[in-house]
């Protein structure tokens, strides 16, 4: 309300009495509604709340290599080693090591900085060390963190820890993971503190975030769907937390439910659209191609995993059972397709190059993408861009019909040139050297633009300035 600067006597109201009363009643009603909403939310999500929808996932059977997630609780006399083995498998499905390992000599000891729009969050130590890890956590403490996003001391956890997805994981599976973590070597290490700007360093504000972006509820199988579909839904929306990377976020950094799995940018890397849209997504991939990509990181004529997805394959999905891989594919086939506006699939671009003949005997002035490609890339990818070794596990991939090269955003290609590729699976040890220390931003941009123009989407370009930002995210 603006300050009264008129000559109306101060004891005369600025608004009619009736209007003022209406405003007062409306304000009181709004306050009461907010209070009632908070009480209702707290009763449903508070520390003592217990979900009523945690039912055995009888429809979600895995094969013998992995116990069915959410199957009936193990008998008291069950072999503990089997429980631990199951927990190890589930921890791989959840890719726990990826976030909780900053130094490979200290696995699960945390310390990995995660950059967010609100500051940097550093992952905690989850080894059973009693002082710096979770050695003094009870099973109830662990369940509460996974299902409700609340730590041992009652502090609210930040959603960089994907409890919004982990809440769907059954109690039996959470306790199996806990049993496995208890067998790890305790590491006495306290990670650095978070570095968040005010007011985002106030954990109590997470109650407001949760109100709009989090619903505590265990996964409930759909009796109308197959066992594979239910298992896939349980993994994708829960422990594997695929949406965390492949779904764009709203202004609060919650997941945008209207665009699930349609692709998003994480630390400069574009996690592609994995909906069944035939142009923007993976709708024209075969089931075998999708499962092979998750198991090996490569699908001939389609894609080769790099960056964060390469790490997911190396640390997590390569270890999944064939049943679980098929189940993930089955579920993803049924999510609503989302178009990204592309004119053709990412893997359908490109033709072999013959620039090497044109360069012979030609004086090069300035930064030339073709020359830089021949000098730095052709040894492995061939000067024609067709790669070496065809579709063999250890082949140098073709840049033609390559989804990274054919993407509408050239950032992933530039990042691969800058940082290289390192992906070790049971099928192959894939290594591409990083050129970031050898090439300038202008040179990386020139190679990127040459590759996209010749072998991929010619409308996808990057500037030296953009490369600089990608170099140091």
Write structural notes for this entry:
It is a single chain. With 473 residues, the chain is mostly helical. The chain contains 18 helices and nine strands. It has a three-stranded antiparallel beta sheet with strand order 1-2-3, with no helix packed on it. Strands 4-5 form a two-stranded antiparallel sheet. A hairpin with a 2-residue loop joins strand 4 and strand 5. It comes from Paraburkholderia panacisoli. It is found in: Cell membrane. It holds the Pfam family Cytochrom_C.
Notable traits:
mainly alpha; Cytochrome Bc1 Complex, Chain D, domain 2; 3-stranded antiparallel beta sheet; globular
- Total E-strand runs: 9
Structural class: mainly alpha
What spatial order of strands do you see in the largest sheet? Answer: 1-2-3
Runs in which pLDDT lies below 50 for 5 or more consecutive residues are 1-75
User: What is the average per-residue confidence, as pLDDT, rounded to a whole number?
Assistant: 84
Radius of gyration, CA atoms, in whole angstroms: 26 Å
Q: Biggest sheet, open or closed, and with what strands and sense?
A: 3 strands, antiparallel
Q: Shape from CA axes?
A: globular
Characterize the quaternary organization of these chains: single chain
Range of helix content: 25-40%
Tell me what portion of residues adopts beta-strand conformation. 5-15%
What is the N-to-C order of secondary-structure elements (H for helix, E for strand)? HHHEEHHHEHHHEEHEEHHHHHHEEHH
**Total DSSP helices:** 18
Report how far apart the termini are. Answer: 44 Å
Cofactor: heme c
Organism: Paraburkholderia panacisoli
InterPro entries: Cyt_c-like_dom, Cyt_c-like_dom_sf, Cyt_C_IC, Cytochrome_c-type_DH, Membr-bd_ADH_cyt_c
Keywords: Cell membrane, Electron transport, Heme, Iron, Membrane, Metal-binding, Repeat, Signal, Transmembrane, Transmembrane helix, Transport
